[in-house]
Amino acid sequence: MRFTDHFIQEVLDRTDIEELIGRYVTLKRSGANLWGRCPFHSEKTPSFSVSPAKRMFFCFGCHAGGSAITFVQKMENLDFPDAVELLATRAGIPLPQESAQGESGGISRRRIFEMNLEAARFFRSCLFDRELGRDGMQYFRTKRRLSDATIKHFGLGFAPNSFGALTDHMHKLGYTDEELIAACLCGKSQKTGRAYDYFRNRVMFPIIDTSGNVVAFGGRVLDDSKPKYLNSSDTPAFKKSRHLFALNFAKNYASEKMILCEGYMDVIALHQAGFENAVATLGTAITPDHARIFSKYTQRVIISYDSDEAGQNAANKAMRILGEVGMDVRVLKLANAKDPDEYIQKFGADRLRLALEESKTGFEHKAERILSKYDVSIGTDRIKASNELCAIIAEYSSPIEREVYMDAASKRIGIPVDVLRNSIEQIQRRRHKVAREKESREAQASLKNYGDRINPEASKNPRATTAEEAILGLLLIFEEYRNAVERGEVPLCREDFVTEFHRRVFDAVMSMHARETGFSPELLGADFSPDEMGRIQKMVVARQQLQQNGPAVFRSAVEVLQDVAKTSAAKEGDLNAQIAYLREKQAKLHKGKADKT
Description:
The chain is α+β, with helices and mostly antiparallel strands. It has 5 domains: 5-91, Alpha-Beta Complex (DNA Primase, Chain A), CATH 3.90.580.10; 109-234, DNA primase, catalytic core, N-terminal domain (DNA primase DNAg catalytic core, N-terminal domain, Alpha-Beta Complex); 247-358, Dna Topoisomerase Vi A Subunit, Chain: A, domain 2, CATH 3.40.1360.10; 368-445, no CATH class; 456-596, Orthogonal Bundle (DNAb Helicase, Chain A). It has 25 helices and 16 strands. The strands form 4 sheets. It has a 5-stranded antiparallel sheet. A hairpin with a 4-residue loop joins strand 3 (48-51) and strand 4. Helix 3 (68-76) packs across helix 4. The longest helix is centred in the C-terminal third of the chain and has 31 residues, at 417-447. The protein is globular. The mean pLDDT is 86.
């Protein structure tokens, strides 16, 4: 639904942007603003700024920016109305009455939450039914040794081996096939057109977000059918890359460290054994978004993946991605067990606790895998091992870490530290050269506005684009310029703008200026995407960093824009435009001569 400006403004007024963003980002005050590492891209030097006075944020690295609503949109992958709803609920503001469908006709997140909760209750009742849930309960209790308390704690359930058990149940509660399909609870047969249950004959794992909403499900078969695990697809309420299984519990025990597992059962087994800081990704490899979620709750992550080759390759990827956001990454090595669940069943929780304390650093883990492949007593193998070790050490930005790892590698393979250091420095120089070349190409493309996803027309006329950005930045900041345009004192209209994106911004700014509620850049998010809001905020920041923003600057930018428009019209053969353009040029020339005399 579309909220009124008054309601959105109330939500923003009652949202402390410093406190909100501080829940996701560690912020430190410097002057009037707060600074931290951007949660939207990987960086080591803080370039993310929050202005409590202006109630806006901006990243000087990736150019994300906007209001508290924009921030929630990007962090939680929500559309504008859902972000407003989340902040309103957080602030205790009652929501206006809404229908089950959103403004665009899609199913609302709230409706999906309601459906998922009812589905979770259905799956749970089936599991505890002596007949329907016998196989599922045998799997949990007997094979996996879960207590009833653990089963209830995680809300585990069972989907009967029926094409319509859940669908029929949900129909009785008033939900339609369209809604059930949108929530990924049922599908539709291409042959018959009838709805069928998406999950059948599977033990069920509800996925719950940190606010307690059931956002999706995972289901595991009890036989050899494929796929072994079936997970909800992305819906308006769920994105795989933005959620971790059991984070709703683990976040309360994560201050020291978190354990990253591969599957649901590993996590549940760890929680039952007392390790309540364990989580897992949801049927997908770890992503940068996952890494940034970890960074909100802890500084150390212990990776506990399967010991097979696929598991170890996944661990290497996880180490890299987690390291990019500054995490202290360790790897758990379990002897005589494939995964934590099997290890606990074989050796108990105390042995696992010792193994966690002895977990290896990322370098130690990688070095052991490299050295296990080679016999360093043989010259050719020693060369191969040293090359691979140097390549790994070169990835670390800290000189101290590199020195420590070089010393360890030197002792393991019998090559002097100075030799290893020279090799590592050569690798770094090559990488820096490649990185500089890439940055140079990107900078050149940026100067020409090539590849601009937000404003793809910018590259066609850089001069006009620069003028448009200056005009819009000034209009967004200064009321007097908006008044001058509104009263016609400055002859400027949407047709003067060359790019469609900037026309949209101009229209929105002037429309908002005319509203009774007054001008508030924060409300632009209702009409622009989070990425577009970042570009709008970039225009504002660019003007605020300049000392000259007076009327002469504004009028000069308008004249440039209109000059570009007239030149373009003349080039296209518009006779009237050519005549008007030449007359104006002659008038300026005569005026210049008169001024000199």
